[in-house]
Amino acid sequence: MTDRLLTIGQLAKAGSVHVSTVRYYERRGLLAPDTRSSGGNYRLFRPEAAERLRFIRAAQLAGFTLNDIATLLQIEENDADCTAVRLLIEARLARVHEQIEHFERARVMLDGWLRACGRAEPTGGCVLLRDLHDDSPTRAPPESSRKIGNRP
């Protein structure tokens, strides 16, 4: 890359984000301008900041929190070994597995409730809305007692 400095708008464009996102990352300590313009009105960034911005966005897509990303950047800056990175990845993967289990339970519940929709009460009231008020939201309807993972 060239040594030409980028304004915050140019950096945002290079990273395919809004300027407000760059400012937010600045406030979080993930990005920092290298200098200011001669009048002090503009933040100026080295081209490497665009690479860092792309790294932040890629890590977010993988589900890392901004705190995790700050840790990853700190590890990279300190030339630490991969052990700390591996631990972060393992922790993130464990959270993904928990989310998958949560979504699978939700899918089973929703499938059961959708099947129950065909059996409306003669009064015209919605039994599902009543059940949502009366029952624990983590309990699937009785008719959906099939195993998680089996599709209809």
Q: How many domains?
A: 2
The biggest sheet, with number of strands, parallel, antiparallel or mixed sense and barrel status, is: 3 strands, antiparallel
Structural class: mainly alpha
Quaternary: single chain
Low-pLDDT ranges? 144-152
> In the CATH scheme, what's the topology name of the largest domain?
Multidrug-efflux Transporter Regulator, Chain: A, Domain 2
Rg is 24 Å
Separation, N- and C-terminal Cα atoms: 54 Å
Q: Output mean pLDDT.
A: 83
Strand residues, percent:
under 5%
Largest sheet strand order: 1-3-2
In DSSP terms, counting alpha (H) and pi (I) runs of 4 or more, how many helices? 6
Q: How many runs of DSSP E, i.e. beta strands?
A: 3
Level-2 CATH architecture of the largest domain? Orthogonal Bundle
What level of helicity do the residues show? Answer: 55-70%
Approximate shape: elongated
CATH class of the largest domain, named Mainly Alpha
String of helices and strands: EHHEEHHHH
Walkthrough of the structure:
- This protein is mainly alpha-helical and 152 residues long.
- It has 2 domains: 6-62, Multidrug-efflux Transporter Regulator, Chain: A, Domain 2 (Orthogonal Bundle); 95-144, no CATH class.
- It has helices at 8-14, 19-27, 48-61, 66-77, 82-116, 127-134; strands spanning 6-7, 35-36, 43-45.
- Strands 1-3-2 form a 3-stranded antiparallel beta sheet.
- Strand 2 (35-36) and strand 3 form a beta hairpin.
- The N and C termini lie far apart (54 Å).
- Mean pLDDT is 83; it is low at 144-152.
